[in-house]
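User: Can you recover a sequence for this backbone? Please restate the input before giving your answer.

Assistant: Of course. Working from this structure:
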C-alpha cells in the first residue's frame, strides 16, 4: 500500500502538487526524490540553515531547510502546550537523532530520504527541568515528576505502569495533536512503523503517511 502510494505520488503527477488533505505548497515539493538505488548518492543543493529551536531548544543544533524550520517552530509550540498540561512545565530540550543527512530511504532505496533535503527530524525524547517554584502542578502529577526527568520514545511509548505510564500519555497525546495539525508535518512515523522503535520521524515530503 505504501509502495503504491509512493509510486503514484513520485512517478505520477504527485510531485509539485499539494497532497490531498494537506497544506499549502512548499518549495521542496518541486524537488525530484527518485535516485539511483546504489552507489554514491548526490543530494540536490537546497537551502539549509542552522536551527537551535525558538520555542524549545534542541539538544544539539539542527540543519534544516527554512520552510521546515517554520514547521518545527509550530511543533515546539504544540510540545510546550501539551507538556504544560501534563507536567506543569515545558521541556528545556528536545532530544533528537538527526536532521540533515544525505541518504536514501532505507526501505525504498530508489528514493532520497527527506533527511537529504533538511526536510526531516528524528525526535527521541524530551528533557524536563524541576518544576519551577510557585508553579502549580497538575493535581495528578506524581511527586517524583516534580524533579527533573527525561521522557524517551523507547521505552516510554509502550509504558503502562508507574510514572512511565504518564509519559506514555504525554507522548500519545502529543502525537495525536500533531496528526490533527495539517500545517505542521506531512509524514509522521513512530514505533508502529518498522525501524522506528526509539524515535518519531517527522518530515514534509510531498505526500502524507501517518504510521505512528
Ligand atoms: Zn528520520
Amino acid at each position: 500500500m505504501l509502495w503504491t502510494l509512493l509510486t503514484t505520488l513520485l512517478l505520477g503527477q504527485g510531485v509539485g502538487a499539494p497532497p490531498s488533505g494537506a497544506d499549502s505548497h512548499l518549495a521542496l515539493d518541486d524537488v525530484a526524490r527518485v535516485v539511483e538505488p546504489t552507489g554514491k548518492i548526490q543530494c540536490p543543493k537546497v537551502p539549509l540553515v542552522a536551527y537551535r529551536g525558538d520555542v524549545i531548544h534542541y539538544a544539539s543544533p539542527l540543519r534544516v531547510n527554512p520552510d521546515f524550520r517554520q514547521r518545527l517552530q509550530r511543533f515546539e509550540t504544540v510540545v510546550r502546550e501539551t507538556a504544560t498540561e501534563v507536567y506543569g512545565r515545558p521541556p528545556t530540550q528536545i532530544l533528537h537523532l538527526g536532521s540533515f543527512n544525505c541518504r536514501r530511504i532505507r526501505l525504498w532505496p530508489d528514493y532520497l530520504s527527506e533527511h537529504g533535503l533538511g526536510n526531516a527530524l528524528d525526535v527521541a525524547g524530551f528533557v524536563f527541568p524541576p518544576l519551577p517554584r510557585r508553579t502549580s502542578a497538575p493535581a495528578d502529577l506524581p511527586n517524583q515528576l516534580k524533579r527533573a526527568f527525561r521522557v524517551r520514545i523507547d521505552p516510554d511509548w509502550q509504558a503502562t505502569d508507574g510514572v512511565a505510564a504518564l509519559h506514555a500519555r504525554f507522548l500519545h497525546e502529543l502525537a495525536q495533536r500533531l496528526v490533527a495539525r495539517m500545517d505542521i508535518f506531512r509524514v509522521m512515523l513512530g514505533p508502529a512503523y518498522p525501524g522506528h522503535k526509539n524515535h518519531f520521524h517527522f518530515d514534509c515530503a510531498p505526500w502524507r503517511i501517518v504510521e505512528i
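That completes the design. The chain has a mean pLDDT of 91.
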